[in-house]
# Entry
Amino acid sequence: MASALWGGAVSGTKYALGGFGPVTLLTVELVPAAAVLWAVLLVRGYRPPGSWWLPALLGLLEPALAYLGDTFGLSLTSAVHGALINGLESALVVVLAALLLRETATRPAILAVAVALGGLVVLAGSGGGRGTTVGDLFVAAGVLSASLYTIVAKRFDDGSDAFSLTAWQFTVAALVSLAATMARWAAGSETPPVSVAPRLWLAAVLVGVAGFGVSFLLFNLVIVQVNAGWAAVILNLIPVFGLLSAVIFLGEGLTHSDAIGAALVGSSVLYFVITDRRDALAGRPVSVSSPR
# Structure
């Protein structure tokens, strides 16, 4: 569900960019997301997080730095390059989990990531556009930040309430994004959204609340219950959901290469889930084994 919401947020963001500057749009998305999360949290009953540094660090890693890097990068490079580089997140998570968490990636996990990367190459190869090195580096930095988010969320779980953790995380990200937006306005790189159409405001708010807020809440609820490598494989579905939402809601065409790439990514996730379940029933180590 989180992957579906994240993927759908791509089309919503693309639609809203018809009236907002990229950094301004990120702030417009994050502020209502944080407000809704706090409203739900206060109605349900506030529980302070186990530590204050963890939600601050998570919010800085993602959405703040990850989405800022992606936004700046895509303003300088092609969408094709951006899609391919973003698709490397699952592989980065598996590698970082092995290096930092000492998790051992099993053969199904490695094969699933490899097949998914092949699918992403097919998806990216079906488009056009020219990229720049600086833009690619910005996108790569955003992907690295997002990958580190998964590792930190798994490694330093302190039993914090998922609602409180997510609300504080988005508060930090909204403040960072707001500061970046003010800097862009002061420099004249972007202008305040005083004449943006209501439908674009609605799209931006929906992306922030559902595509960002709810998806991160779902992710934070389950990441402590699954291995980082398992989560990485499921994250491969994000570009597939993004492709489907673009076809359904934006009316973009679907090529044969798009269909093949989506099928490869989807089959990699299905294969991994079936193998993981089979090994669990057989009593063998599954997906990625954690020392904890």
